[in-house]
Design brief:
It contains 1 helix and 11 strands. The protein has an 8-stranded antiparallel barrel. A hairpin with a 2-residue loop joins strand 8 and strand 9. It is elongated and about 55 Å long.
């Protein structure tokens, strides 16, 4: 059964309001804090998520890439507020064919430093769908509307380690909270919701550094 028969994704207004409220609350703090900027890029290993239901179809993970920039604002010695803006491609493979979605992502998050060289971070993410590509052999079809011309809402949890001066490496788990696609169980007739999930392996390059 083809997974390309999809419903429009439903925007999560609550998450969007949370991001706006968080930004407004932090504005007075950020105005007086030390700000850093940098560039980042890495690999994205993504697929669909819904447990045993995926075993009915030949669905596998897709490896792609992400690139963008970030800002980090120190709130205290242990806590920072970060905002990433990046281009990323996620998707999945079905019967050997690739279904790719390109996003422009905004990722505000809180970082907690155990030491000055290692931290964990978590926060919500909003992704605007820019393009959709279906690849089968030598055939490549671009289009919009298949996965819905709207937003992807997700949450992130990750950890980063400084490996050399100004460069950090990290692993982040991204979990969508709104439906990407749905399929019908051939036995029960039940409509099964499927969601995106991804592992992101990144390198970050600081253009500026914290004052020690």
């Amino acid at each position: 059964m083809c997974l390309i028969n999809l419903e429009m994704m439903k925007p999560k207004t609550t998450l969007l309001l949370f991001i706006c409220t968080l930004a407004l609350m932090l504005c007075p703090v950020l105005a007086q804090a030390q700000t850093q900027f940098g560039l980042k890029g890495g690999l994205v290993y993504s697929s669909l998520r819904n447990g045993d239901e995926l075993e009915r179809w030949d669905v596998s993970a897709l490896t792609s890439y992400t690139a963008g920039g970030f800002m980090e604002v120190s709130i205290s010695d242990k806590v920072s507020f970060g905002t990433d803006l990046d281009f990323a491609r996620k998707g999945f493979k079905e019967d050997g064919d690739s279904r790719i979605i390109a996003y422009l992502n905004l990722y505000p998050h809180i970082e907690y430093y155990f030491k000055d060289w290692i931290h964990i971070e978590a926060g919500p993410q909003v992704g605007l769908i820019l393009a959709q590509v279906y690849v089968s052999g030598d055939r490549r079809v671009r289009g919009r509307g298949v996965f819905g011309d709207t937003f992807d809402y997700s949450v992130n949890l990750g950890s980063y380690v400084r490996i050399v001066k100004n460069i950090e490496a990290g692993l982040r788990y991204n979990l969508s909270i709104n439906e990407l696609t749905s399929v019908q169980n051939p036995e029960s007739g039940e409509i099964i919701s499927l969601y995106h999930s991804a592992l992101v392996l990144e390198l970050k390059y600081m253009l500026t550094r914290k004052a020690q």
